Structure formats: C-alpha cells, structure tokens
C-alpha cells in the first residue's frame, strides 16, 4: 500500500494501482452506479493528453524526457491499455473533474514507469502540473465528449447503412408478394410486401443521412479555452498547436471553435445529436412493432412473414417461438428515448460559464450510441436478413378481405362497391366470387382490375366511367 496526500488529507492506495488520490476519492464518493465511464470517453481524453504533451514538448514547456513519456503513456491508454484503472462512476459531481483526474493520474504513473521510476513520484511527473499542463477539465471534457461521440457516430452510421441495405434486399425479394394493407389495424387496400420493406428502408435512409450530417456539429472543439473559454494560463501558440496535433491523432475534420467560451458552456449540440438518435429509435421501434404484428400467430395472428427462430419461447409451452429480436430492439429504443430526456434536462440545466452535468450528458449520449449500434447489428444479422414471406397466408388474408372492392370503384362506383364489400363480409365469400356471380364485370376485366400492377401502383389510365 502507498499513501498519497494533498491539501484535503491523505488516502491509502494499492501499490499496483496506476490511479491516485483524486480517483480513489471519486470512486468512494460517487459510487451510485455499477457503470463506469465509457471507454470511448477515456480514449478521447487520452488522445487529448497525447496531443497536449506533444504540443507542450515542441514548444519547450515540457522537457523532452517528460513529454515523450507522457505522450507514450497517453497513447497506450488511447489504445485501450490499463482499462481496469478507470474506476470512477459514470455519474459524478464536478463536471467531469474526477474522470479527467483519473486519466491524468494513470498517465502520470505509467509515464513514471516508462522512465524507470516508481509510481507516485509526482515531483518528476505530476498529474496536474505536467499531464494536465495548459488544460482544464472544462475544456478537456467537452472536447473529449465530441471526439468520443464522433467515433461512436461513425460506427453507428455504418451499422444503419447495413440495415438499410438488408431492407432493400428484402424489398426486391418480396416485390411480387401481394398482401393486405392495414390502416388503424383494420383491413385496407392491398400493398406488396416489398413496398412495406421499401418504406422501412427509406425511413432508415433518412436516419442514416441525419446521423452523417450531424457529425459536422461535433467537429468544433474548444481545447485551449481552459476554465471558462478565455484561455487563461494557456499560451496562444499552444492553443493553435494543440489543435493541429489533435487533428493528426483524432477523428478527421476536427477544428478549433471560433468561440471557445461557447464550446465550454453550451451543450445544445449534444441535445441535437441525441434528438437524432431518438428519431432513429422511433423508426426502429415502429418497424419492430410492425414485424411482431406481421409475424404474429403464426396461426392465430397475421402470420404473413416468418422471422428467424432463435430460441425456445416458453418454458411451459413446447414449440412456442417469440419475436425476440424485434423485442430487443424495442427495449433498446425505449432506453434511447429515456436517455434523450435525461440528456436534455442536463443540457438545459447548466449555469453561466459551465455545465456541471456534462457527465450525465456524456454517459447518456455514448450509451445510446453503443446500444443502438449493437441492437442494429444484431437486428440486421439475426432478424432482417432471415425474414421469409408466407405467400400463401398473404394471399388468403387478401382474398378473404372485402377491401378488394376498393379496386372496383372506378368500374362499379362507390355505392355498388360498398354493397359488394358488405355482402362479402356478411357471407364470408370473396369479392371476386360475388362480382362474377352477379355478372357485374367480365372475368377478364375483373382479373385486370385486381392485377398486382393495378392494385399497388397508380393506374396508367382511368377505367371507363362506372355503370349507373
């Protein structure tokens, strides 16, 4: 065990720990969740530390030995090493100070180790004086939030693109499968199963485009603004150079915010991104509801599609299989929507020059991105790609419905078609049979009126006026 001390007192820490006093305190005081700070955020902060160490070394504010050791240690953390040393709860007081301190301490002690020195030799490399040189949590943390969100957003956009492509494959595969449409869960005019999948693909395409475009909002960072955006204690040369170094290490297109104060105190950008995640969740959840309905039964429900069978659905009912993938997506979407509310409350609750609730914003945003990406990948691979059409059931449901009479209104008129629809519903016979029985249309004309191309696309020309 080793003892570390500062102006607030001392703390005993395990000898093999890379973190230090500030981290140990935070881990004890903010232990409200099992969830720790997301690794994407730790990686982003480490990249900032690496860029800062390189800039400070190049400008002579750090000697070469210290600067190179800090940069090397930061690079290791950015690559995912020492992940078990980041022990602070995701939700914490202090606007992210505990997370920044955790990274500072781990990098400082690893840098000391790289120099052949024991941990806690802070007289040689100090977490604040050297690793955090010319920085504040207040400019590091919001910058890291943007970098982490950009990285996660790019992965999510790729997953959404894969889902769009899978839906388009099904759109083409099911183009010739005619089924009963439904509005307000009641029988409606026919639609092809391919058109149903095509509509989902188009909605997902909009989400993909929104996620792609919103990345531009996240590329403006305020590193160098230090405490409130004024850049106090940060040399102007450093401010310009650290952004250049960060562009070389981080996501492409990162640029310095022209108003550093704005980038530190205002969190509306994260609310905007979260809102688009919520919009994507709405699309995915609605699609999942639809898939559960279309696959319901299979005998006592609609049963017009078959979802891949992934697991036994009951411990008491043999043979029962549940739509578990759509159910998973629904639940993830509920969480994303809830995260959006929490994030928006946190974003609007900042006061004056700083938002102390940035940890909640970061956690909600990054968790939503992670959950959505994982759910979309699983949904695409284990559900959408394996969906099959139950062509016979689609035909049966369509033929039994009286709504086919709608296609006959240009030929018979609304009132006569309504009479036929009512008679079909009352007798259980099909519209096709009743029209032929009553001699209202010739068989060839009736077949043309009920042809797939006429039922699911605009008519090429208006049929003759209905008989009166």
Give a written overview of the molecule.
It is built from 18 helices and 8 strands. It has 468 residues and is mainly α. A two-stranded antiparallel sheet has the order 1-2. Helix 3 (64-78) packs across helix 4 (97-114), helix 6 packs parallel to helix 12 (358-382) and helix 11 (324-348) packs antiparallel against helix 12. It starts with a strand and ends in a 12-residue tail after the last helix.
Assembly status: single chain
Q: Summarize the biggest pleated sheet.
A: 2 strands, antiparallel
Enter the CATH topology name of the largest domain: Fumarase C, Chain A, domain 2
- Rg for CA atoms: 31 Å
Write the layout of secondary structure elements.
Blueprint: E1 2-6, E2 9-13, H1 21-29, H2 39-58, H3 64-78, H4 97-114, H5 127-131, H6 137-173, E3 178-183, E4 186-192, H7 193-218, E5 220-221, H8 236-249, E6 255-256, H9 260-265, H10 268-294, E7 305-306, H11 324-348, H12 358-382, E8 388-389, H13 391-400, H14 409-412, H15 414-427, H16 431-437, H17 443-449, H18 452-456
Parallel strand pairs: 5-6
Antiparallel strand pairs: 1-2, 3-4, 7-8
Helix pairs in contact: 1-4, 2-3, 2-4, 2-6, 2-8, 3-4, 4-6, 6-7, 6-12, 7-10, 10-11, 10-12, 11-12
